[in-house]
Amino acid sequence: MAQSPTIAIPKKSTDEVDWTGPIRAIIKASYGENPDNYATECAALQRCRQDAVRGAGSDLTAASLLTKYFGQLELLELRFSEIRVSFPWRDAFTSKLTTQTSIAFEKASIIYQIAATHSIIASAQNRSDPEGLKRAYYYFRTCAGMLTYINDNFLHAPSTDLSREVVKFLVGIMMAQANETFYETCVDQRKSPALIAKIASHTTFLYNGLCEEVKEFFGKGIFDRNWVTLLQIKAKYFTSLMQYQRSLADTAAGKHGEALARMGVAESNAKEAHKLSSSFAPYFVNTLSTTLPADTGTAILELTKNHLALCTEKYGQGQKDNDLIYNDHVPSEATLSPVDKVSAVTPVPIHEVYGTPEVQKTIGPDLFAKLIPLSVHEAASVYSEEKAKIVRAEVEKAEVAEGEVKASVESLGVKAALGRYKEIAEGEVDESVPATVLSWHEEIQRKQGVDGLEKQLKELEKLKETVARELDAISESLAVESRECEMMRVKFGHRWTQEPSGGPVKDLRRDLKDHRSSLEAAAPSDQQIYTLWDSIRADLALLVSKPKLEAMFASAATGGNAAGDLLDVSEGDTDDADREKMKKLVREIEERLGRLNKISRERNEILKDLKEKVQTTSSFP
Q1: Where does residue 271 rank: exposed (0-12), middle (13-18), buried (19+ CB within 10 A)?
Q2: Coil, helix or strand at residue 100
Q3: DSSP assignment of 5-51, as one string?
Q4: In the prediction, which pLDDT does 492 show?
Q5: At 503, is the pLDDT very low, low, confident or very high (cuts 50, 70, 90)?
Q6: What's CA 332's distance to the chain center, in Å?
Q7: Residue 621, pLDDT score
Q8: Is residue 122 within 8 Å of residue 47, measured between CB atoms?
Q9: Which of the four pLDDT bands, split at 50, 70 and 90, describes residue 219?
C-alpha cells in the first residue's frame, strides 16, 4: 500500500567564504599573537564549512556535518564576536542572493539548512516499517524545533526563507506531518478508534489552518503550487479519516445512527479528496517539484481511492444493518457534535538535539581552544555568579529583617500613639477627634450612612424573594405544560403529534435547578452579612454622628476609659508622680525607636560596603 507523500523544505545554496583573513587580523590586533600559529585551526574551520554546505548531500551524514559546523560557529562567536565576514546565501524559494557580514546570519542559514535536511530525511523514510515511521516522526519534530528557534532568536530577516511568516508556515507544515505520522503510529499499534479520531481531528485542524494560511502567499511566487494542492487534499483526506474513526467508535458504543451519519460524512470528504487527487496526479511532474517524492501524484491518488472504497463499503453495510436490525435515527451532518482534538505532538527544541553526548562528540573540541581557553571564561563566570549570590542572599536577609521590624512597630501602634502620650505627660491633651476617625465619618456620610446600608440590605431581601417567586412560577408553568401535554396525548392518542415535554424542556429544568441551587447556596453568605451588620451597626451609628464623636473623645481626654491604649490612663493618673512615670516611659520608647533606626542605617551602610568590595574584588590574584 502506498504511503502518504510528505513535503520537504528546499535547501539554500552558498558560495565560498574566507574565514582565514578576518580571523588572522583579529588574532594579531586584539590578542597580540602571531596568526601563523593558528594556520591549522583556520584551515580546519574553512574545511568544516566547505564539508557542511558544499560537499554533503541530504542524508544523516550531511546533517552531522552541518551540526558540527554550527557548533563551531557557536564557539567561534564567543571568541570573535566582533568578527565580520561576508556570508553569501541564495534564498531557498526565490534564489535571490543575500550577503551579510554578521555571524548571526550565517548561524540562522545553517540552522535552516539543518532543518531542511531533517525534513528531507523524514520524507524519505519508509513509514510502513515501524523504525522508519519512528525516524520520520522524530525528524519532522526536530525540523519544527530548528525553525522555531530561528523565529525566536533572529530578527529582521534579510531573505524570504528566513522571514517570520514563511518560517511560521514551514513550522506548521512540519507539525502537521508529524501529527500525520503519529496518527499512522496509533493505527499500526491498533489504538482505540476514539483516540485515533481525536488525533485525526487535530491533524485535520492543522491542515485546514495551513490551507487558509497559504492564501496569504498567493501571487508572491514563493511556494510550489503542488504544495497547495497536496495540503488541500490532505485536509479533506484527514477530515474523512476523522469521521471514519469516530464512526467506528460510535458503532462500538452502540450509537448506530450517529455512526452511520459520520460514515456518510467520511464518504463525502473521501470523494472530495479523491476528486482533487484525480485532477492533481496527471499533471504532477517530479522534476518541477523536487521537494516532493517522485510518486506523489500516483501515491496520493491510490491512497484516496482505497480510502473512498473502504468508506463506501462501510457506509453501505451500515445502512443495511440499520435498516434491518437497529432502526436507529440518523442525525443530519449539521447536528453531529465536533470531534475532540488531542494535541500530543510538540517540536523538539534545539537544545535537546545539541545536548546529547552524540552531538557533542560530533561537534568536537573548540578549534581555537589554546587561544582563549573556554575554561577561563567559565571559571570567571562562575566566580561572578557566586559573588552575586552572596550579595543577593545578604540583601534578602536585610529586607526581611527590616520588614519584620516595621510590621512589629506598626502592629503595636507605637509611633501613632507616642505623640498623644507625650501630650498626656506634659498635661496638654488634645480633645479633638483624630483625622483618621473624621475621614471614616466623612466616608460613611458619602455612602448614605446606616440608612443607606439598611436600604440596600432590604433591597437584597426583596430581590431574593422576587427571584424565588419567579423560579417557583417557572417551575409551576413547566409542570402545568407537561400535565396538559400528557392529558392531550391520553385524550387524542396517536393523533396528538406534539413531542413529549420532557426532552425540549430538559435544558430549562436543568438551568432552573442550577439557579435554585445558586440561590440556596447564597443564603449562608447573606446570613453572614446580616450577622456582621448586626455586630457593627452600633459602631457605625456612632461614626455617623459628629457631635457624639466629639463628646466621646472629649470625655476620654478628661478621664474617660482609655481601654485599648498601650499605656492605661485612669482618673488617678493625673498627678505629678504619674506624669513623671509616663515621661520616663515615653523617653524609653523614643530611645528604643532611635536604636532601631540606627541599626537600620548601619545595616544599609554595611550592605553598601559589601557591594562595593564585591565589585572591586578581582577574579584572579
Answers
A1: middle
A2: strand
A3: P---PPPPEE-----HHHHHHHHHHHS---GGGGHHHHHHHHHHHHI
A4: 83
A5: confident
A6: 37
A7: 41
A8: no
A9: confident
